[in-house]
């Protein structure tokens, strides 16, 4: 069952990538209207929903992990953008929970700042859907996100500015009291328990985000 589902997911991703490659190859020769593009996108939406909606909770977690691993290996920005949009859609349609998607992205071994597109798209998606998660889930995610931020400590800020901004935006959303994602005392508890403040200041303007707390 697992192998069959894994093969179907790979075939789905390969199909999206193949069509994207053809669109690039024949760019300027074949004109696609906005309606055509939307129709194709909706077809992919429906296909992915059908692939995942019938799975048990355990199988869904495994399938999502495989999908994310496939995404992590894509080196084309436009193709990644489309497949991440489909991932966001299955959260919107409540096929998978926002928490499971965020956890799966953060657990992926390829989520390293040197893998720029995957890193930036992952944290952009997390920023979009994290408001759907309860405070206990957000607290668990914060621990992992701070670990990822720690891993950027020795990097050159200018060379990886996009990656800094992507993770900073998520942290900003969590730390913003107006968003009510996590009580301030829990945020401070996590910071004091696991990190030294000076080790976090290297993340862009994080010191400004921490100030209101």
Automatic annotation (TrEMBL):
It is found in: Nucleus. It comes from Caerostris extrusa (Bark spider). This is Mediator of RNA polymerase II transcription subunit 23. InterPro entries: Mediator_Med23. It holds the Pfam family Med23. GO terms for cellular component: mediator complex; transcription regulator complex. One of its GO terms (biological process) is positive regulation of gene expression. The keyword Transcription regulation applies. Belongs to the Mediator complex subunit 23 family. Keywords: Nucleus, Transcription, Transcription regulation.
């Amino acid at each position: 069952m697992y192998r069959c589902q894994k093969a179907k997911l790979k075939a789905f991703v390969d199909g999206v990538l193949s069509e994207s490659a053809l669109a690039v190859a024949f760019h300027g020769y074949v004109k696609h209207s906005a309606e055509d593009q939307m129709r194709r996108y909706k077809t992919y939406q429906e296909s992915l929903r059908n692939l995942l909606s019938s799975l048990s909770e355990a199988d869904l977690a495994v399938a999502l992990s495989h999908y994310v691993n496939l995404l992590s290996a894509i080196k084309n920005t436009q193709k990644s953008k489309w497949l991440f949009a489909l991932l966001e859609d299955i959260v919107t349609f409540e096929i998978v929970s926002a928490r499971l998607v965020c956890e799966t992205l953060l657990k992926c071994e390829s989520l390293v700042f040197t893998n720029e597109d995957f890193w930036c798209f992952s944290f952009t998606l997390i920023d979009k859907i994290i408001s759907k998660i309860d405070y206990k889930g957000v607290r668990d995610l914060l621990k992992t996100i701070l670990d990822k931020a720690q891993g950027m400590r020795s990097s050159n800020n200018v060379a990886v500015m996009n990656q800094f901004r992507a993770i900073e935006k998520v942290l900003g959303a969590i730390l913003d009291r107006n968003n009510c994602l996590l009580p301030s005392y829990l945020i401070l508890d996590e910071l004091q328990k696991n990190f030294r403040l000076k080790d976090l200041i290297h993340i862009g303007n994080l010191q400004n985000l921490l100030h209101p707390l």
